[in-house]
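Why does residue order matter? Because the sequence determines the fold. Keep that principle in mind as you read this record.
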Amino acid sequence: MSKEIHIHNVREPQIIIEDPIQLKFASVYEFLSLTVWGRLPGQIQRWISKFYAKVFNLSISKYIIKPYCKIHYKESNYLDQFVPPSGKVEYQNFQDFFIRKFKTLPKVNAKQAWPCEGLLCDIGYVHDIEQTNVKGDIREVHQIFGLSKNEFHKEYIFTNVFLHNKNYHRIHSPVDGTISRIQHIKGDLVILRPWFYKNNPSIPAFRNERINIDIKDRKNRTWHLSIVGGPAVGTIELPKDIKLGAKISLLDELALFYLGSTCCMVSPEKPRYHVKNSLVSVGDIY
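Structure:
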């Protein structure tokens, strides 16, 4: 990505649009991801991903954190707004940096906020989202979220935020509400990068392993979130207090990724400011 996400203490509607990445041989990358890698048995995908992820747990990997930040962030003090995870006083490896935590969560001047940070690579009414062929099985958007058609509101808005490796990788609640469903769907770990899939950037969400969380807001409307893993994802982890029937507040933490991720959402409202290929951040007004 050519432009950076700037994290502010109070979220203002500052919209940054990314120029879509154009791959000369996008169809080749799609073939390699879906047909070559995607047809490997799931156990082999996980074994390779687990091996790859181990590299970022090595203590020597902590030495790439500062150069990585210098390359990807304009702010020289970027890391000052975060702390290492699990009460650690310093980052012991790159994985610690990847799952960094905010010292103080952003302040929100609205009742709804974006739950994550990344590139809004797909957006539209549920009934307009393309079907996709998953190993000979035609799937529709409701199947990303593990629901049947009659459980899904077709006039709701679908969004897909791709989290680049440099992005903050914790997912937060977009609203105040009550958790009404938690579901784990096993699947593949195909590559998530949306520019690999020119015609349908959300293809990986139809077929990859994911955790679905539904939140019933104060108006009794359901916000559906699908937290999608990709290659090298060791774990999608939920905090202990995230369970069925739990009351949650805006920006409470819902989940974190250990390397690689996408967050899909179906919501009863349209985003107020953001459009396709814009960058969103945790706490931005939805």
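The radius of gyration is 18 Å.
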